[in-house]
């Protein structure tokens, strides 16, 4: 019997008890109303606001270009989501990016795919303005029920030198998160230009000059490409921690009878093509396990100057995808019988669009075992995009991207020179 049940009482007494209960609740509400300064609006309105306040989730808004989306973007969205119950993300239009920064590397429809796939994002607004205007801010507050507007601790300055978030700060509806160390779009552009060896010697010298401007004044670092040649050149300032990996992980394994689907790859410069094939793969089972090849394997298969993003950077980008349940960090090139048994894999898949078709060559087929077991499937890739596609976009228009990033590189250098410690979650 419930605590407010009048079962077993005569009808007259039950009715009287119910009346007393209603009166008691009403008196309590009136007391709270008067205590809160109830002369400001009607009691009915106050009750409505009380119900709304208790039920309505805190909604936060973050916007951005999200061009060449990387784990730094994803970590910003993770931090923003932690400041509320629901995260709404505005993706700036191509026209606005061109007007304020220069041409984007990835067009709007690809950027929308990327942002929508981040597991901390609840809603996406397409064609968001680059600056928070009074009109758009009111729309966020009134139509989207936004409580706070979020941005990183690095400055966002408009072409006229003003703060893009000045109005939100003035309204008292602004919150700040910590910028993710070790990565930015300008860094990644520089890595691509520096790592490309399809150009002439003179052009490579120009790329080196570009890299110095893209690397925020940290200086160039020559690192072993992982293929044993010692000629690999990559610049990465990412400092991986176990805590960051845990923050990005789902923390849940497959159920006892789950159908586990496995897909592997380099997932370098994580892009919309990757997202779409992962979405399809996840739809074929209950749990998607993604194998991410280590730097040495990628270098051996793609060339000494790949991958552009290192193993941990690539792992975080994949982990942030809502279609991915778990990753193997440094997965083997060949899918063995022991591996299939260890992870209880039901199906192994591969996209039809890839950097190479090594698996189709009999003498070096990494999927020979799952093929022989009848559990291998090639999936039709919805988008004809590879990592090389992204690199070609940059290299073919590097002068435009140099101009686009000159001011950004200077502002980021200033940020690093003057930054102070800011705790995150």
TrEMBL record:
- Enumerate the transmembrane spans: none
A Gene Ontology BP annotation from the UniProt entry:
phosphatidylethanolamine biosynthetic process
Q: Which residues form the Cytidyltransferase-like domain?
A: 61-190, 262-393
The annotated pathway is: Phospholipid metabolism; phosphatidylethanolamine biosynthesis; phosphatidylethanolamine from ethanolamine: step 2/3; Lipid metabolism
On whether Transferase is a keyword of this UniProt record, the answer is yes
Q: What class of enzyme is it?
A: transferase
Q: Which InterPro entries match?
A: CCT (IPR041723), Cyt_trans-like (IPR004821), Ect1/PCYT2 (IPR044608), Rossmann-like_a/b/a_fold (IPR014729)
Question: What Enzyme Commission number does this protein have?
Answer: 2.7.7.14
Q: Region (Disordered): which ranges?
A: 200-234
Q: Its Gene Ontology molecular function terms?
A: ethanolamine-phosphate cytidylyltransferase activity
Q: Which UniProt keywords apply?
A: Lipid biosynthesis, Lipid metabolism, Nucleotidyltransferase, Phospholipid biosynthesis, Phospholipid metabolism, Transferase
GO cellular component terms attached to this protein's record: cytoplasm
Question: What's the catalysed reaction?
Answer: phosphoethanolamine + CTP + H(+) = CDP-ethanolamine + diphosphate
Transferase among the record's keywords? yes
**Which PANTHER family does the record associate with it?**
ETHANOLAMINE-PHOSPHATE CYTIDYLYLTRANSFERASE (PTHR45780:SF2)
Concerning its family, UniProt says:
Belongs to the cytidylyltransferase family.
Q: What is this protein called?
A: Ethanolamine-phosphate cytidylyltransferase
